[in-house]
Write a sequence for this structure.
């Protein structure tokens, strides 16, 4: 008989023996050291100064691990039980480094600070569960050390990443964001918004059938999105140009291309032709304004020049579509 109960296979923290608490602390320090080294490896190429911070923090975690192993060996011998964070119910978890680093260097630093706060709480709880004086002293000392790591991290930051370095790293991060996300996304939005104007409005004025116009717009938008996405992804692997992941750039370009075309295709789901066309034209103006804003905000193109370029190009393509549709 099935009762819908699923055994989680996890232990309650309060059920752990002192040996298991020590083993959990050892494995946690090993994991944290690996995570800090992964952060350092991920940052080293673009942010070498910040990478040094995480290298030193990893070395400190190694020191904690050695102290814990020494006291385990003295009390329980050389055989350390295999118990990790994921084996304990409600125990704090670590985010994989690949989930943190792409979010930016500040996110990595914030995650490291949260790691130290979680470790401090664990050691305080572990010390309360321990009766052996030497073990309790070590766990309490480690809780204090983890609490002091915030100040240590600040000191390392001042040593390796003073304000001038932080500003330089912020500029590099912004530049990488523009190269990997903004540029391909902007190119896609421009292509999707402008290049689909002619076929969509040509179909609209030629047939005055909103459903057929929608199908033309849908196919043009999706086709253009796939084409732009693949082109962006395969023409440059980013290694020499420094433009970042080709998959990320391809997705940014493809998605924005499709959205640019769908914006003025979706109104033709409205049965009334002139209502749909009026809304589609209004959407086109919103799309062109968005392109102008992005160019001004991220590409530092003067707003009036960007507006003139975008509006002129959009007007010419729109006029071509209307003329062809009425031919």
């Amino acid at each position: 008989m099935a009762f819908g109960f699923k055994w989680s296979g996890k232990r309650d923290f309060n059920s752990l023996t002192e040996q298991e608490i020590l083993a959990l602390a050892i494995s946690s320090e090993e994991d944290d050291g690996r995570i800090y080294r992964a952060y350092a490896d991920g940052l080293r190429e673009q942010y070498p100064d910040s990478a040094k911070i995480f290298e030193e923090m990893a070395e400190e975690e190694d020191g904690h691990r050695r102290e814990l192993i020494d006291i385990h060996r003295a009390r329980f011998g050389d055989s350390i039980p295999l118990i990790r964070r994921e084996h304990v119910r409600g125990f704090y978890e670590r985010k994989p480094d690949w989930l943190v680093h792409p979010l930016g260097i500040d996110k990595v630093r914030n995650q490291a600070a949260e790691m130290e706060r979680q470790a401090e709480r664990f050691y305080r709880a572990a010390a309360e569960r321990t009766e052996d004086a030497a073990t309790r002293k070590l766990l309490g000392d480690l809780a204090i050390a983890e609490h002091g790591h915030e100040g240590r991290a600040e000191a390392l930051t001042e040593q390796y990443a003073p304000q001038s370095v932080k500003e330089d790293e912020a500029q590099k991060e912004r530049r990488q964001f523009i190269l990997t996300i903004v540029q391909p996304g902007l190119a896609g939005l421009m292509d999707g918004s402008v290049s689909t104007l002619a076929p969509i409005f040509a179909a609209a004025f030629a047939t005055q059938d909103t459903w057929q116009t929608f199908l033309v717009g849908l196919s043009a938008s999706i086709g253009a999105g796939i084409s732009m996405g693949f082109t962006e992804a395969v023409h440059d692997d980013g290694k020499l140009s420094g433009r970042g992941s080709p998959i990320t750039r391809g997705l940014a370009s493809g998605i924005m291309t499709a959205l640019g075309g769908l914006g003025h295709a979706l109104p033709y789901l409205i049965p009334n032709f002139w209502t749909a066309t009026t809304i589609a034209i209004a959407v086109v103006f919103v799309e062109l304004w968005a392109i102008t804003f992005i160019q001004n905000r991220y590409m530092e193109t003067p707003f009036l020049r960007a507006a003139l370029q975008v509006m002129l190009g959009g007007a010419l393509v729109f006029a071509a579509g209307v003329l062809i549709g009425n031919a």
Residues 168-325 form one domain. The CA atoms of residues 226 and 254 lie 6 Å apart.
